């Protein structure tokens, strides 16, 4: 995989984050998006460069100036032999660190999800009426 592919990949993710958050803000009649939180599994291979992709992707949208928070989710696998969830010694070492049994079942580390969108409400939307979606924080006034 070349660097260009990685950048394209992250740019695509940044664009879809911006799209999702902007749509959410528009649905709720918010003035703009203040902050976005995402959970990224280490296996997604998405690093800090997502921060750099996010800014240009958000320009001119409701996400312009929004803070991006990336929570990195560590890798954990299921060992059938120990009947426990384990953390492998290395990223691509899918073996139980204790008994050496192969652990193809990934418990965490592959997720990529939007966990919260913080909106700046307009005066109209600040009154009760805007639906409070799960995982959405209303900005404190
Ligand atoms: Zn084991």
Please, could you describe this protein's structure?
- With 141 residues, the protein is of the alpha/beta class.
- It has two domains: 3-73 and 110-138, hypothetical protein PF0899 fold; 75-108, no CATH class.
- The protein is 28% helix and 30% strand.
- The chain is built from three helices and seven strands; from the N terminus they run αβαβββββαβ.
- The strands form two sheets. Strands 2-1-6-7 form a four-stranded mixed sheet. Strands 4-3-5 form a three-stranded antiparallel sheet, with no helix packed on it.
- A hairpin with a 4-residue loop joins strand 3 and strand 4.
- Helix 1 (3-27) packs across helix 2 (49-58).
- It is elongated.
- The model is unreliable at 125-141 (pLDDT under 50).
- Bound molecules: zinc ion.
Helix and strand layout, with pairings?
Elements: H1 3-27, E1 30-41, H2 49-58, E2 67-73, E3 76-79, E4 84-86, E5 106-108, E6 112-121, H3 123-126, E7 136-138
Parallel strand pairs: 1-2, 6-7
Antiparallel strand pairs: 1-6, 3-4, 3-5
The chain binds zinc ion.
């Amino acid at each position: 995989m070349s660097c260009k592919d990685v950048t394209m990949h992250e740019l695509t993710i940044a664009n879809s984050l911006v799209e999702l958050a902007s749509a959410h803000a528009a649905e709720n009649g918010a003035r703009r998006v203040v902050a976005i939180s995402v959970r990224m599994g280490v296996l997604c291979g998405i690093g800090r460069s997502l921060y750099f992709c996010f800014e240009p992707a958000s320009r001119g949208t409701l996400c312009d100036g929004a803070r991006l928070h990336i929570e990195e989710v560590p890798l954990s696998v299921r060992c059938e032999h120990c009947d426990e969830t384990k953390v492998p010694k290395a990223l691509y070492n899918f073996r139980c660190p204790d008994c050496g049994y192969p652990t193809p079942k990934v418990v965490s580390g592959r997720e990529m999800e939007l966990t919260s969108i913080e909106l700046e409400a307009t005066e109209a939307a600040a009154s009760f009426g805007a639906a409070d979606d799960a995982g959405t924080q209303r900005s404190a006034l």
